[in-house]
Amino acid sequence: MQSFTPAHRLKKADEFSSVFLFKKVRFGVYLKIHFKPNGLENSRLGLVVGKKVHKRANKRNYMKRLIRELFRTNQPNWNTSYDVIVRVHKLFTPETFSTLQTEFLSLTKLFNK
RNA sequence: GAGAUUAGUUUAGGCAAUCGCUGGUAUUAUAAUGAUACGAGAGGAAAGUCCGGACACCAAAGGAUUAUGGCGCUGGGUAACCCCCAGGGAUGCUACUACUACGCUUACAUCAAUUCUAACGUUGUCGAGUUGACACUUAUGUACAUUUGUACACAGCGUGCCAACUCUUCUAGUUAUAAUUGCGUAUGCUUGUAGUAAAUUAGUAUAACGGAAAGUGGCACAGAAAAUAUACCGCCUUUUUUAUUAAAGGUAAGGGUGAAAAGGUGCGGUAAGAGCGCACCGCUUAAUUAGUGAUAAUUAAGGCACGCAAAACCCCGCUAGGUGCAAGACCAAAUAGGUUGUUUAUGACAUCGUAAGAUGGUGUGCUAAUCCUACACAUUAAGAAUGCUUGCAUUUUUCAUAAACACGGGUAGGUUGCUUGAGCUUAAAAGAAAUUUUAAGCCUAGAUGAAUGAUUGCUAGCAUGAAAAUGUAUACAAAAUCCGGCUUAUUACAACUAAUCUCUUCU
RNA sequence: GUCCUUGUAGUUAAAUGGAUAUAACAGCCCCCUCCUAAGGGGCAAUUGCAGGUUCGAUUCCUGCCGGGGACA
Question: How far apart are CA A35 and CA A10, in angstroms?
Fold first, then answer.
């Protein structure tokens, strides 16, 4: 089921820091993905988009929405449920969206069934 | 008329499908979340946080004063304003008028210079040199007084001028004609160029636009003088001298300095000058008239006394209590703690010592937990009743410690504040406008690691293209308690307004 | 979210509203030395940006831009 409810969000600071401390990272040109398998029914997503990527809020919000959409469409294919934190460290726009999509899929190929 | 640029105002594409997200309403299940259906879901600046408010809490009897900050032409609008509308004056820019200078075109006449040609002229003229005379200059010497001056004599160099002689060149010079250039006068320039202290008229733009005649301070350098005016070069008079040399006095027109020079321009006037007098303009004061008022106009008087800067201090008038929705209100876990309440348990012991105290035991702390060791702390007081062995025991109250439960505060967390409002749309009325009033209709985001997205199709539009068609479908930027403004960002699309420039046509 | 503070050579600082913006260290060039060090001389700033007030602005005023910090 391709849905995205509040149960799919990482919210507390403890949850974030536990994923960071697990120290499993995958790098790409635009993204950095921290992940940790959790024992829950759902995978959960956390996003980090810093002000250094772009100064304006509308561009940062756009990037967050795109990543959330990719997470929503792809996470039912994963073998178990993970806690995932995606960090953006380069600006992308609607023109570079397709390269971002291929990058995200290659980075999350590990999780697939 | 067309195009471009700049500035400003308005607008900020539409319809549909699939998969998702956040609220709302209804139904239904479960017990607080799920399912189904319906309908809603980002701006003109949501931004910057620069002003003004609503709202909430805190403080505060009421009033006044002081300090500090803000504002500052007039009238109106507004809940309020560093906001808006209208007006006043000021300043800048553009054009016009007037004046000045320069340039160009054409014409005229005369003068000057240069050139060409012709005539006259060669007993001439120009240049250079030598000699001499005179004048200036004055070393030096002598005499007299004494740190220097006076008188006399006076060489040489140099300068000026005159005379004579010598040398060199071959045309100088005069007259006439023509050409060129310059000056002058007049005319025109179908926007020629540049400027103008105080000014005229029109248009347009700008803004922290009270007071410099309450007081204190400032105005570098330059310059005579920088705010109590003053006199460098000058101008004039008188006296003086061989001499425009010197002295005294008058003056501030002109020059010079500076960002700024003590009302401006013109005429008269004067020895030269001066608001000394007059005309126009500006300034000050008073009166009258017009206007709600800022202010304007007119008249009279003054005769310049009053330079700039308050975005230096300051003075005058008006105005402001503080903190911000993370305000504030409510519910409330674990752990710890509470001058709270109830119940239960334990304790207030032994030896030595006159006493102070010491030792041991017991308890608590230190540990994730247990034991040992070390360390730290505590080991305390008072009253009543009953019994008898009369100073002991028991009971009880108070006290201390521990545990449990309750209570209240309160953290994490949650709920609320939260969106019906100085609201929006339409119409009518009042007003010059900002704006206001009335009537009818409407409900239009509310997130919290923070929703409003992704994909696809059609289409308005834009670009390319003869067409078919192809491409693009976009600028600046996203709510965070809510409103009114200001400031800043943006032209992608479309419309309108103004200014400037270019091109074309007509007169 | 509400506030405070600050911006000057590469760095750290200075400056009365008055003219080529000052000093130290670092950098570059030249001199000195056989070479280096030390020493001497020079260069290097659109005073964050844009407006305004003023005869004149690093300084005064306004608006933007950036840096740092505080509260909870």
Answer: 12
Question: What domains can be seen in chain A, in order of their start residue?
Answer: 6-108 (3.30.230.10)
Q: What is the distance in angstroms measured between the alpha-carbon CA of A16 and the sugar C1' of C1? A: 24
**Is strand B in 7 Å reach of the CB of A10?**
yes
Helix (H) or strand (E) holding A8: none
ipTM at complex level? 0.77
A41 Cβ neighbours under 8 A, 6+ residues apart: A81
The structure's pTM equals: 0.66
The reply to whether A46 has its C-beta less than 7 Å from any atom of strand B is yes
The reply to whether the CB atom of residue A12 sits less than 7 A from any atom in nucleic acid chain B is yes
